[in-house]
Amino acid sequence: MGYIGWMIFGLVLLVVEILTPTFFFLWFSIGAFLAGITAMFTTNLGWQIIVFALSSTLLVLLTRPIAKKLSKNDSPKKMYIDGLVGSTGRVVVEINPSLDRGLVRIEGEDWRASSIDGGTIPVDTPVRVVRLEGTTVLVERKTQE
Questions:
Q1: Domain match, 50 and 87 both
Q2: Measuring CA to CA, which residue among 94, 99, 98, 86 is closest to residue 137?
Q3: What is the pLDDT of residue 20?
Q4: What are the C-alpha distances in Å from 96 to residues 33, 79, 114, 119, 126?
Q5: Which domain holds residue 108?
Q6: Residue 1 pLDDT > 80, yes or no?
Q7: pLDDT value for 84
Q8: More confident residue, 55 or 81
Q9: 7, 12, 76, 113: most buried, per Cβ within 10 A?
Q10: What pTM value is reported for the model?
Q11: What interhelical angle do 3-19 and 25-41 show, nearest 10?
């Protein structure tokens, strides 16, 4: 396989990495690029395969634990976002569907907001989060308990 073949193989693996959340194919993509560089200097397929296999294996063994540790740091944020439903906050910018605006402060953070019933909610009104749609919270006026 010539250097162009290795480079195409490396690009395909890079696209696969982008399309999957595994953070695994990147190392093989880099290995294919290194094998392609090797192919520019030698036509010996054995050396190209050795460079590909050795570099890919070393990259997986040396960096996979780091990648796993970094990806585990994502879960607390997901839990926080899931925990928003049912929480309470205050309107800091009037929720007005006709103007397509509204901001709610929940636990010190401001979130784009819409009212669940499509109505207007004035500033400083206590609200409860009913659900999330992307980065927008859908809220209702909080009733006195």
A1: no
A2: 86
A3: 82
A4: 53, 29, 8, 7, 15
A5: 80-141
A6: no
A7: 84
A8: 55
A9: 113
A10: 0.48
A11: 170
Q: How many domains does the chain have?
A: 2
Residues 29 and 65 in one domain: yes
Asked if residue 31 has pLDDT above 90, the reply is yes
Q: Is there a single domain that holds both residue 91 and residue 67?
A: no
Terminal Cα-to-Cα distance of the chain (whole angstroms) = 73
Where does a domain end: 73, 99, 114?
73
Could you tell me if 30 and 10 are in contact, meaning their C-beta atoms sit under 8 angstroms apart?
yes
Q: What is the model's pLDDT at position 80?
A: 62
Give yes or no: residues 92 and 69 share one domain: no
CA atoms within 13 A on the CB side of 101: 6
Q: Which amino acid is at 15?
A: V
Name the pLDDT band for 76 (thresholds 50, 70, 90). Answer: low
The residue type found at 78 is: K
Are 122 and 94 in contact by the 8 Å Cβ rule? The answer is yes
